[in-house]
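ERR on first pass: missing label on line 2. Operator R.T. fixed the label and resubmitted. Corrected input:
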Amino acid sequence: MTTTAPAQVDSETAAQRARRTRIIAATLSLASRGGYEAVQMREVAERSEVALGTLYRYFPSKVHLLVSAMASEVDQLSQRLQKRQPPGKTRAERVSFVLERSTRSLQRDPLLTEAMVRAMMAADVTVAQEVNAVRQGMSDLIVQAIRGDDGVQEHDVELAAILQDVWFARQIAWLGGRIEAADVWRDIHLAIGLVLADG
Amino acid sequence: MTTTAPAQVDSETAAQRARRTRIIAATLSLASRGGYEAVQMREVAERSEVALGTLYRYFPSKVHLLVSAMASEVDQLSQRLQKRQPPGKTRAERVSFVLERSTRSLQRDPLLTEAMVRAMMAADVTVAQEVNAVRQGMSDLIVQAIRGDDGVQEHDVELAAILQDVWFARQIAWLGGRIEAADVWRDIHLAIGLVLADG
DNA sequence: CCAGTAACAGGAACGTGTTCTAGTATCCCA
DNA sequence: TGGGATACTAGAACACGTTCCTGTTACTGG
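pass 2 clean. output:
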């Protein structure tokens, strides 16, 4: 947190964009192999062929780094899912589709998920911007599913926020060893039914 | 995590119970003054007049320590609130009463809350028992409010779990500087209205 | 092209959670 | 009541996130 970050991402040099990409890639790779604790800053720096100080110039803390990595993952998920309207006649069916896909996508790589979700929860005010990017991506996904072809509905943003809260909380319960992977989806599905009781 | 914990809390010697009490007291005091980062294990040990190794024998990590502290706080809150049935004619009114009291109680000491909630979120599988104690305490509170004088209702435990998830998630959003203290309560209230739509 | 500035490399150093060791005190039971 | 196990103290040691320092490289305006 000593040095000032590169002014703007879109005014970066090509070499800088490449460094940023290498750093995120190394982070995802390490997280995927060993979770939160395996993402060690020295190791990330070494793998992305960047000095430790440079790593900290790009991402001022481990939490910034992991939340940024999650933002990049959510972006990808979002692009895959938003190619077409989620199927289903009711709001509940469409939201179920989207959240089930998201949940399965995360559970496929539990250690990576653990690293990213743990960072999201550890984020303090200095990471608010990155955290908001992640939440916005998830929210867009859910809101689009709620609306379907019906357009804007009352409370749809608030409902999406609640479902996202439950979604995160259940992931944490799973990561904390308090519920099984299968229960994550059962609980979220139940929450969808209760919150979107329209069919 | 190397040494085995004292066998059972109820088979402790008087001196051991006193140590445990002093440790929790020192933890709450430090957390209240400076939040999560101010709870430093060496400092806790010194203030509770216990060697560092002993502290780790009683609480095998900082997270265990803070979650245990939260369990003790929730116990107290629970005892205060459960003295009488929460007022209100509808489930929503009663649950609002209980959660508003809980929220206000936490917001009165933001740094302590930050320390405890952050520990709850950082808890891994080794802390599952302590985390469950906290969640059970909160759940009892909410379930009792849902039931009121009406007795057992369908899904009341699941509804309580969802509300608790939202409650925690909103606390985190507040602690993460993404929403204001007042918004915490507004969002939880909204969730109550949506989940318990019975008046 | 050159000077000055910002970014980067390499690595030492520091803080705090956690573990480990050696010695001492306390407890429990035969 | 004595002796062995268990618990405790004091403090060193280790790991990893973070900061800082020194020298070098890459960029930019004149």
